[in-house]
């Protein structure tokens, strides 16, 4: 190595001199042979001068540089995989089995002993014509292009005019290029993201000179590749980096309006947890409102007033191709509504108009320009969608009243949820009218609503409900599926329960239903990891348990912090967790006779109750911190959310009675006849039913007394604590000796004042 002299012959002398001039470098260290620069320096500096004057060639030259520097070749001395020691034995065994099988068949052995099953071969997905014939790759590309043209295509090429000036800081571009994820894929003609990251500073300087400097002077256009999209939403890395900078400029204007709206998707520091808390709070309130209309003694005693019709209605709206069909004119109106600066609006508008979609199939390439939709995959698309939704909510509020969306709507990404509570017939009629108005408004502004996936949930109780439902609810084609007639334009499927944002919502026992739903998700996550979790050779027991905590536990506990857990729902999750831990640790209860508490202590594992409690406490503390340190008008601290989280925390803490005693090794569930102890009430009841029921059932019938066997004047058993709906059910429970609890000794009966007066024991005249 050494310094080059101006007169020294060098194959790349011209490029190197241009490099020194462009970057004002006095000299550089080069290799004696091979590439004129070191590997990293070759990528970082040699590529820029070769593409001077044409930004689109930067990516192509960078890819060429990467291929020259990072050439992957198999060494000539390396053995092929089938000759490696790990495979030789398996291949030899496979062919030995094959020869034996052929010999058995040749000997005439009964073929019924062989299990013959056809293994379906993997086939590439192919399109067919209307006649059923397979399409060629070229025909497939044209068919896909025609389909998407019908969705968001434009007949004429977009006429992109020169945009107004916009200012970019050089540090922002360099930081955005360094922020590209190295493991993300890029289009075939673009260099991998890691090459862009290596050359972040020189590329930023070059783009400043060739592109952004002209943008400031208002004489530049958006490069075509920056606004283009390829299959599976592959984007140009440079365009992706610039979109990231535009997003940081746009977000402050979005948050000025979105902070006070119930939108929880694609917005920083908001999550589906908060959206689900609003939905489940509505489900709980509507359920209580409907239960109050029944003839339950407990509801009447709590002071709930009965009405003719009360309950709740909710609609989960599903958009078809929401991003692809978004109206750009509406989007530009949204930017104006958010008071985005004119230069930023103009840049985003030009960028959207320059969007081109490319479809590749084999050697066939098709492309088309679009006049609607938001290009998915770039960092700016989600922010633009939020801007559009904020404007749509403003349009809804203008139609139905200013606070309407805050009271009746929840938004997460492209999912909208509407909800109403009603306490009379006019309330449900008003809810249906508002639902029809919102659905029609969304369809009129260009969205395509899926009539099959947009579903309703309705819960109504009262004297007028049966007559009302006969007019509103019909069966679809005389099938079991029911349809709710909102108005003449909208008839939507009516469900008893629905999966919304990964959680099971309903007006019934949604705590139990959601726990069962998340149990299935936890079992599925465990099944995917089962080969690793159950293998003693793969990882140590500590690492396998940690792997289980990282993947299975979050998949199971998701949304349980919003729906809440009853005792029955908690037992479902607890039993599943303990069984999975025992399976990983190879410690079955019937063989080791090790209690759950002893097992968790030995493995240094947190109990299922503490896992749930810590999650709920973390959710509550986060909201409280926002409440004390942030703006009180932020929708993250809406009174409904704060109240719901407090109720859920109390609900979880109420489950601690048995769990904390189990954790401390104290077994309070003790049989009053044989003094055996058990971990929970369910185990104690099962023991009594099996071991001590014969004597109890053969005993003489117990004389029922409301004052003795009831609780606080209600049909709640004073022995076992079970609450019955009717006194007759409690009487049967006592007289047939089904109660496993201890019935208090009957108190001495005292004659009433009326009885003593009739018997002559009391003279009322003396009292007066």
TrEMBL record:
Q: Which Gene3D superfamilies match?
A: Classic Zinc Finger (3.30.160.60)
InterPro entries in the record: RT_dom, Znf_C2H2_type
What transmembrane ranges does the database entry give? none
The alphabetized UniProt keywords are: Metal-binding, Zinc, Zinc-finger
Q: Which domain of life is it from?
A: Eukaryota
Residues in C2H2-type domain copies: 667-697, 715-743
Q: What GO annotations for molecular function exist for this entry? A: zinc ion binding
Is-annotated flag, keyword Signal? no
User: What is the recorded name of this protein?
Assistant: Pol protein
This protein's encoding gene:
pol
